[in-house]
Amino acid sequence: MPLTLLPDLGDLLRLHPQFNAGTLVEALRHLGAPGVLWASSADPDHPLRDALPAARLGITDLPLADWTWADAEYAQLTGFLNQFPQGRERLRAAGRAGAALADLVTAPLTLTGALDPAFLARVQEQTLAVQAALDEGPGTRWRERRLNDLAAQVQGRSGVLLAPLDDLPNLLTRLDAQLPDLSAFQPGETGRLRALADRAWQLNDTDDLNGLLAALRREAGDRVTPRAELDAAAAGIHLAVGDLPGARALLEQAAHALTDDLPRSLPGLVLARLGQVRDALGDRELAQRTYRAVLALNHAPQVARDAATAGLSEAFRLELT
User: Fold this and answer.
1) Is the pLDDT of residue 321 over 80?
2) Which top-rank group of organisms is this from (predicted)?
């Protein structure tokens, strides 16, 4: 049975209402898959590192090589090319292709749209343009070599392989693999609820804050996006408008609801924000204890650890514009 390839967008999963971590959970359930073979980002704070275990879907990490050294080689190459007119032109050409690829994956996107052959061909066109400008090797962070190594690791395996979207066209030519049949797939409540929480965590000046709060209050939550996260996201809205007591009440409610079966990054996010609110309300001693609780967690995301470390060093103060 061939591998089925499922596309990943990394942190951009937080951007797309119809192609988010909840959508991929729903797609795996639709396919009847118990989990994924992980061939995507090594970022421990990847949104699917929360969503898949919370949905009782497994993650099998492939024993892939560490390619971080290739980033250093790329930086050296770009520094060298910047010294020469022809090199700078090559970098500009690669930059244009990279910008075009970014436009493709940040425009409104659905999971089925991302798997459309015409869309994948446009993605492939931009990755090939980068390769043409900088050559395979340091200029592409050894893309061909990395993909060949990945193909060797998964040859003969079955199941669902999660890989970066821009790797899919290359993997299809290297593997006995297929794209998933999602002709009957319909995104559901898990993806919709995840989209609501993602939107609430990323406020901007044009948001209808009252509408967002009302939407968050209406929901009971699910395994991927539990009620505690909805309360924490709502607290962020209260904090954005300077309502510290309202934010504190919601965060303490969320903190009391934290359990071991929740998405693993949630306790760190809730407690780090709660520490900041307690600080802003003048409860410095309790805020410090809350920050220390964040740093004692095994899976606190880096943004929460950074906030806790900063809070221990200097009391958090809310600055409203």
Assistant:
1) no
2) Bacteria
